[in-house]
Amino acid sequence: MSTTTTPLPPAPAGAAGPAPSKAAAPGEGRIGLRANLRHIGALARRNLLQIKKDPESMFDVLLMPVIFTLLFVYVFGGSVGSSLGGDRHDYVNYLIPGLMAMMGMNIAMAVGTGVNDDFRKGVMDRFRTMPIARSSVLIAKIVVELGRMTVATLILLVMGFALGMTLETSVLGLLAAVALSAVFGAAIMWIFILLGLSMKTAQAVQGMGMLVLMPLQFGSSIFAPTQTMPGWLQAFTDYNPLSNLADAVRGLMMGGPVASSVWGTLAWAAGITLVTAPLAVSKFRKKT
């Protein structure tokens, strides 16, 4: 018994064949909040393990608060303290809250250089092939750096209390000051992530960062009162977000009016994040 196969009639000219199935590109589609948080946690753990393998990367966090505190208290403490109407002890009370405002700026630079270095090593290319939210890679970086910033702030406070700093308000005021510094530091980190994604080398990120940080830090109320500065520099310090943050932290820890400075700092942090975070995520997606 033989079987015959009936050939199918040829498709008419110009007729479209069956549409090939299209594989979804990695990372496409909507990722839920729970999955996004899980990705951020896994990536943050990866960054922490990287620090564990390279403990020298914590040297800046451990030593920077000590060096800055000793340098400014014992080099400038006498003269600036007398201008405040007191002595070196009064300058410690003035300086430590200001340095808390500065910690986030200096540590934020490490985020930019780290992102740039990860791209150079090809780590980020691997992440972009995974079905994860692109923002989770960058947010995980910020989460870990906020942890490093917290460690630096704790060391700074220990140094301050060891040198005679007195908390004039309450523990809640101190915690609010630490939280406000962290919020502003996270916003600044988005700027440096964008720099890290935009510049070719980590050295370029560091150089550009210093050009931005130096005028902002020294042209503010972090290290000294602004009343003795020239008029044009006082006008700059009035609009400098670091002055807002330093005055807010100082008020939360030492007393005085804080509402204007706190709201000004939060407004700066929100504005910086709303502008730079979407740009950084977009740059991360498109960077070659």
Give an account of the 3D structure.
Helix content is 73%, strand content 0%. The chain has 10 helices and no strands. The termini are far apart. Mean pLDDT is 82; it is low at 1-29. The longest helix is centred in the middle third of the chain and has 34 residues, at 88-121. It is elongated. The protein has helices at 33-53, 59-83, 88-121, 123-128, 134-162, 171-198, 202-218, 231-239, 241-254, 259-286.
Task: Write a compact overview of the structure shown.
By secondary structure, the protein is an all-alpha fold.
* SS summary, helix count: 10
User: In angstroms, what is the radius of gyration?
Assistant: 26 Å
| Main structural class | mainly alpha
Number of strands: 0
**Arithmetic mean of pLDDT:** 82
| SSE string | HHHHHHHHHH
Q: Which regions have little confidence, pLDDT < 50, spanning 5+ residues?
A: 1-29
Quick one: overall form? elongated
Largest sheet: none
Proportion of residues in extended strands: under 5%
Cα-to-Cα separation, first versus last residue: 64 Å
Helix content: over 70%
Q: What are the SSEs and their pairings?
A:
Blueprint: H1 33-53, H2 59-83, H3 88-121, H4 123-128, H5 134-162, H6 171-198, H7 202-218, H8 231-239, H9 241-254, H10 259-286
Helix pairs in contact: 1-5, 2-3, 2-5, 3-5, 3-6, 3-7, 3-9, 5-6, 6-9, 6-10, 9-10
